Amino acid sequence: MFNRRAVILGLAALPALAGAARALGAAPPPPDTLATSIGDVTIQPLNHATLLLRQGSHVLYIDPAKVDFTGQPAPTAILITHEHADHFDPGNLAKIAGKAQIVAPQSVADKSPAALEGQVTVMHNGDTGSVDGLPVTAIAAYNTSPDRQQYHPKGRDNGYVVSFGDKRIYIAGDTEPTPEVLALTGIDIAFLPMNQPFTMTPEQAAEAVRAFRPRVVYPYHYKGTDPQQFADLVGGAAEVRLRDWYM
Which of 7, 89, 108, 229 is the S-S candidate for 104 at Cβ 3.0 to 4.6 Å? Predict the structure, then answer.
């Protein structure tokens, strides 16, 4: 069992500003660990929608946007969910990518630095493939509420399920509880977004948890929303890990 860390909440912000919440040079919170059949995966929250998954030689960054990566390991792969500035920063991507494989939707590939063109693997909703030798599936990520569909239109953005041996990790990106999300199975760890009006409400996120039953769920991308409310709504449906994404 992990100790629950205090959660520091901020005011709601536009996506372009949310990634700047963690001060440059601020130490990230300590990582968690997931035991898998190929060895332990360390799970490191970095900021807002940015995280690091590390296992053996695999170093995966998810949505490396407005974060200072000084002192962090060089990536072997990068997953980008969509083009918004709190998820995708072309300048930062160029600085940290090195020779890493980059998996992204077409809209991100179209805006990526030209020097990285040969490193980008485009995945569309429903595609399966591999990232740094690990199985990956692109899950549709979009808004279903009529008054929110302009933020994340259907067919453009991805979430991802990445498999480390016998364990499956779902990173939702920006989405509501779509049919594709509710139909997920066999998820060990899920990262679900909860800021308004761009993604899920706590009630929607709890609905998703009750539907696809991840073993563990991390609320992330929650600026302006109380993740404890989500944890209370989930109850015993999953282990909820509250981590500080905005230190």
Answer: 108
